[in-house]
TrEMBL record:
One of its GO terms (biological process) is beta-ketoadipate pathway. This is Muconolactone Delta-isomerase. SUPFAM superfamilies: Dimeric alpha+beta barrel (SSF54909). Its EC number is 5.3.3.4. It comes from Enteractinococcus helveticum. GO terms for molecular function: muconolactone delta-isomerase activity. Homodecamer.
């Protein structure tokens, strides 16, 4: 199944810069792992925001949730998920 995932990250302003840097590094590493596993297919930034749109692939919504929840920044993310279906013109 393919999913369109939109999320925006809201890190606490009180978080120190070293913690933010470490969190971003861990997030990048986990995204690489998810790409290698074939779960994270594509990512786009939303200009002017700490928001991302991504194309994800998982066998179920539960598997997708587990992948998203494994992201280090997940506790600070506002996530929206849309399940995608193949359009008849694509067949």
């Amino acid at each position: 199944m393919e999913f369109l995932v939109r999320f925006e990250t809201f890190l606490p302003e009180s978080m120190n810069q070293e913690a933010v840097k470490a969190l971003k590094t861990a997030e990048r590493q986990r995204a690489i792992e998810l790409r290698e596993a074939g779960i994270l297919k594509r990512l786009w930034r939303v200009p002017g925001r700490r928001a991302t749109v991504g194309l994800w692939q998982a066998t179920s919504a539960t598997e997708l949730h587990e992948a998203l929840a494994s992201l280090p920044q997940f506790p600070w993310m506002d996530v929206e998920v849309e399940t995608l279906a193949t359009h008849p013109q694509e067949q």
